[in-house]
Amino acid sequence: MSANETLPVPAAKRKLGNSEIEVSTIAWGMWRLAENGRTAADAAKLVHAALDAGMNFLDTADIYGFDGAGGFGDAEALLGEVLAAEPALRARMVLASKGGIMPPLPYDQSAAYLASAIDASLKRLRTDTIDLYQIHRPDILAHPQEVARTLDDAVKAGKVRTLGVSNFTIHQVAALNQFLDNKLVSTQPEISPLRITCFENGELDQAMMLGLTPLGWSPLGGGRLANPQSERDKAVAVELDRVAGAQGVSRTVAAYSWLMAHPAGIIPIVGSQQPGRIAEATEAYKVRWSRQDWYAVLVAARGERLP
Ligand code: NAP
């Protein structure tokens, strides 16, 4: 690659792992959907904003909306209301959810609990099947063989179509995958220009090796990139702004595109709950990264030069 060449730009659609399911290469996340007293009508506007922008990949979890006082399942239930009011929306989306955490227990992936969690998600979402079911965080006390059996049973019963994990180490991914008949199609670590661990700890290399689609959660560091406070966060913002300014996009769009330039095909999960910001995310397809600029962001995030 010469100095003037740029890294390949991702296609707008790709297959989810080794499945036949086609997903947009930017996803929309609903962690914050059930906040701020949002009604089903408000939520519907956001779902439409994502779908109309070409994002068909929507990510939720049973614990989203948990407020520490019994609000479990609220984000799924709100989306379920949206789908009940407008059933045609279901066919336009690849619906991803997660389970395996039920407060006050830290994590629970015992067969009985996990099977009941899948049924409860289906009921709240008012759908017959979840396109991608992810284990939210690993339960250290669940044998991967037992977890695999429960997940395979759910696939066999048609309750879920494909399987993924989130916040798993590479060894936890390998152990679960070993026991699964229906191999994992995705992994969901935290990835952003402020959270770069998986670029160097082997998680993305494993994703490429196994053909897993990596979904990046909190791609703006939970919003920190929009308003950086620490010296290190500011330094990352400066490097993103250089590219954003030159290419006429916002810093947040530059951040999404920076993740998408990685060869593993990272899908950033846009966390904004504002229609304008959701739509703006697709400008990421316009951004071109040179190796030089890409590494400059990484080095700023590391806070020290590469060896
Ligand atoms: P994020 O994109 O890092 O942060 C989004 C937050 O930043 C929103 O509160 C948003 O507010 C705010 N923000 C401020 N300025 C913004 C700007 N200019 N553009 C866009 N957003 C701006 O993502 P996240 O919400 O933390 O996480 C994204 C998704 O990742 C979640 O919805 C969920 O699906 C997934 N997730 C997964 C896990 C896991 O353990 N697997 C954990 C956390 C999240 P506004 O809404 O006002 O725009």
At a glance:
With 307 residues, the protein is of the alpha/beta class.
Explain the overall architecture:
The protein has 307 residues and is α/β, with parallel strands linked by helices. The chain has a single domain, classed as TIM Barrel (Alpha-Beta Barrel), CATH 3.20.20. Helix content is 39%, strand content 14%. It is built from eleven helices and ten strands. Strands 3-4-5-6-7-8-9-10 form an eight-stranded parallel beta barrel, surrounded by four helices. A two-stranded antiparallel sheet has the order 1-2. The radius of gyration is 19 Å and the shape is globular. The mean pLDDT is 97. The chain binds NADP nicotinamide-adenine-dinucleotide phosphate. NADP nicotinamide-adenine-dinucleotide phosphate is lined by residues 29-32, 59, 166-167, 188, 217-223, 226, 252, 269-274, 277. It is an enzyme of class 1 (oxidoreductase).
